[in-house]
Amino acid sequence: MRDAQPLAHFETLYAQSDDPWDVRGAWYEQRKRAILLAGLGKPSYRSAFEPGCGNGEMSVALAARCESLQACDGAASALDAAWRRVPDAATRGIRFETRRLPADWPLDDTFDLIVLSELLYYFDEDAIASMLACAAANLAPDGELVLCHYLHDFDDRITPTATVHDLADALPGLRRSLHHRDEAFVLDIWRPVAPLQGIQGERA
Question: pTM for the full model?
Fold first, then answer.
């Protein structure tokens, strides 16, 4: 397996354009965001985490449903684009941070929404498994873990989308609550399995 795509690769993309994948204007991106948001199980969330936030377009959409959103990216130029896109981030409850994943995953935080969108296939399976385990550990008992990824091949992909979502499906303690697949992308949402309540019986 190769390592994660070098950050220089993404720095170059964002140096050329603050929207290298046309996430603002492309119908694929608009439709994907709408379906992801519609698939969320609750109207609002206390605290959300969005790794790989890019230029902040998804962050804006998520923040409208969240009291607070921690969004991060490893590429400084991507975060520069996010700040330009959302100059009033603080008033929207968004905190943009520089984090190089998986090493800088916020291990001590708890979130009731974690969104991994168009991110994990840039990593090898070991890094993906590490981040997914961290996400499961960070998830509040009433939380949701969201994965959404493009299905088709492209030059800088490292891991197939099917493998990414299979790794998430194998996480212990979670159950899949939503599955959407069309010709372009797959969206899955998992929730923690509620612990069984023990019943103490009494002997006569």
Answer: 0.91
